[in-house]
Structures
1.
Amino acid sequence: MPSIEDPDVKLLAAIADVLQEEYPASKDEWEGSPFFWTKTRPPRQQGAICERLLAGFLAAKGFAVTDAPDSEADRVVNGVRVEIKSSTLWKAGTYRFQQLRDQNYDIAICLGLSPFNVHCWVIPKSVIMSGWGTAKGLRSQHGGQQGSDTAWLAVDPNNVQSWLWPYGGSLAEAVEVLTRILRER
């Protein structure tokens, strides 16, 4: 580590050392998390990383996962078009799954990363479209109440909206939902 030579800088650094004791370091809740590194990436890259995480997880669980042939969906899982939305836990303790659109996909999978837990919901597109602008928590993302091109879904993992209960919560529950949806097709 380089040493400080300038006496004025040394003096200021010594004062900073004393003052630092009065300002306890905030404990980052993500410290030690296996997902921390994802938060250090730009938002677009975070989304791509989470898509790859989920695709790898689903493949490990025995699903056939391929890239979607166009930009209207992110992956194809057992022949079904899937849009993947992800969020890390916000400071307020919620996830915000953003940029939900009326595109060519059959289901959306919302993957929420917490420091030491993961939440996941598998939601049919029809449920998203019918819930947009209702009390379900699907709100227009741009253009206020009249916005209609994109929506976001806020979810408090400790107080999940009842309409989401049938669509997962844990990774295991999401796999069960996905399996059921795929079987019904």
2.
Amino acid sequence: MNRKPKKLAKHPTRSRRATVLAALGLFALQFLLPLALVLPSALAKQSAAALDTAPADSGDTSAAAEADTGENAAAESTRVQQADTLDGSVTLTVLIDGETETMTLADYLWGVVAAEMPAAFQQEALNAQAIAARTYTLYRLENPSASHPEADICGDSTCCQAWMSVEERMAQWDSDKADGYAEKITQAVSSTDGLALYYGGEPILAAFHAISAGSTKSALEVWGQDIPYLQAVESPEGEDAAPNYYSTVSVDTADFAAAFSEAYPEADLTAEDCADWFGEETYDAAGLPVSIEIGGVEVETSQLRTLFDLRSATFTVECDGDTITFYVTGYGHGVGMSQYGANALAKEGKTAEEILAWYYVGAEVQEMSF
């Protein structure tokens, strides 16, 4: 579908806008602070063991009773935050749960950061996530998805980016932390207003994932397309910094054979000992597995990840009698910014811009343009 790029309204210079925002900030401090700034990653499936850091699956609904009050405060804060901002001037059509909604880029980004990254993370990590999310949105505007021609972007993390409304997000945070978390996300969006990552004058495909296995992966390795700014880089998070850094998935041998043979009918799994089904493995420069030979067929680990619902494509596999077990490291496709890696870098004192430069090789943070 051909879609004309949206054009931004003309704005005063940043210095002039800064003066206006400073005045608004003073107003907010005097009159709105008592209301608490409450505004509305792919971490939406994080385990309940990480209750204070997992954004979506914490199972905590203790804030539900305060959701209405929080949403009213959020709406008021939105109006203040969007005054004379670039994000507030752009309107998007967003597909949410099968329905299209119209909202500003600022509101959309709030919901993305709230859904995609734990609010307990360092502020600079949240700021980096806001810039990455804004960049991905601009990329999608210039490269529309055929999956939803009726909308600019959607709230599905398997297609675009996860998104949560104010009410949903507030209901899932601990009630005693919700206001503080909301203010951090508000700060992440407002303090990075209009900033995005560019390479060669174009907004980049700002891919991100939850947890790397010591190194990110290149787009060439995972998607078969060499993208200069999506290269493999070291990532500092480890098992002490990321919940469920290691995970296991066990599959009955017969079930494995049935599923694999359906996907790869040319594979030979007739050997009595299932250990004989598995052959040579291939690794990338960082020592992470890329492919493995099974039944005489070379299969990419990313394909096995999809086939057996593994948290990542970085794993080893063993066969023990009637059971085949995958020992998995990390969470996500591994390309672009690692969210837990970003948080680790922020704890080391790195700024959002430094974090983004670490993960998106050669890309530069600039004021967004169409």
3.
Amino acid sequence: MHALIAYFSRSGENYVNGSIQNLEIGNTALAAKLLQELTGADLFQIESATAYSSHYSKCIDEAKADQRRNARPALKYCPENMAQYDTIYLGYPNYWGTMPMVVFTFLEQYDFSQKTIYPFCTHEGSGMGRSEADIRQLCPGAEIKPGLAIHGAQASRATPALVQWCGILEKTI
């Protein structure tokens, strides 16, 4: 089994526990790196060719506008050989009840048939939202496993939740 952790994360101003804080590393990136330590999976950061603003309120406006027009932002990079992976851990922050639209772009770039996707998201109170349903719609033929919602402010301390989730994963693989 060859696994990939593909994630989107944003540093800069973020909403954390009710206030705006400047993060050097985004919450989802923190969780993805912890997951890599636990699983040994390859790591790939999903990046938009045009980055969201580092200013929180402007980023929120941009993300909401992308969602309203069902945008598919261009990817900055693509993994070279997705065929080698049968398991994908897909990480993202919850933006307006689902994934950032660049994650939609990523999912539409590849055929995930016969692959298993384990979604995880960071959030500040909205959990997984409708992202699991969106992944199922975008990836027909893939097996979508139960996701893990990580409170963004707890991302740097998510190892116990990830260990528990990985334990659940080991039983379902």
